[in-house]
Design brief:
Number of helices: 3
Distance between the termini: 19 Å
Shape: globular
Strand order of the largest sheet: 1-2-5-3-4
Radius of gyration: 14 Å
Helix content: 25-40%
Largest sheet: 5 strands, mixed
Structural class: alpha+beta
Number of strands: 5
């Protein structure tokens, strides 16, 4: 197991299997020394643990936890392309989407769940640029979706 996967285990987490695509796309693709993931939903064992809008059916705190799950799913997608997460040199960008109730404005705090987990797992390599966007609805009525871009060695 890689040092990154050891760190994931130390945090009491497990790198999941890659979430199968829901449509015509790949979970992740490599271009040169970068890997770009597709948007990752907070799927656990093939199902969403919560659905609905953050700020209504889903609390901001639940949204943070779901965003962390999205980040873990994104790392699984990266691994499916590069084989070894220790090849990650840096998380370059995180883009998070939050299905939001009309008056909810805490999207950055929700996506912190993904950002903070990447930092806990990767340390300085997990520090990244980011966008956190509120949207009306996401696929399968998911509360959050996260995509990442990483720079890799070799």
């Amino acid at each position: 197991m890689s040092a990154v996967e050891d760190r994931i285990a130390e945090l009491g987490l497990k790198l999941p299997q890659v979430v199968p695509p829901l449509a015509a796309y790949q979970p992740a693709v490599r271009s040169g020394s970068y890997v770009f993931t597709s948007g990752q939903l907070p799927m656990i064992d093939g199902a969403l643990p919560a659905v609905g809008k953050v700020g209504a059916a889903v609390t901001a705190e639940q949204g943070q936890e779901l965003a962390a799950t999205c980040a873990l799913n994104a790392l699984a997608a990266v691994k499916s392309v590069i084989g070894d997460l220790d090849r990650i040199q840096r998380v370059v960008k995180v883009v998070g989407f939050v299905a939001s109730a009309p008056d909810f404005t805490g999207q950055p705090g929700v996506i912190n769940g993904a950002s903070e987990l990447l930092g806990e797992i990767l340390g300085d390599k997990g520090v990244h640029a980011r966008s956190a966007v509120g949207v009306a609805v996401l696929p399968l009525d998911a509360p959050v979706e996260v995509e990442i871009q990483v720079e890799i060695a070799g």
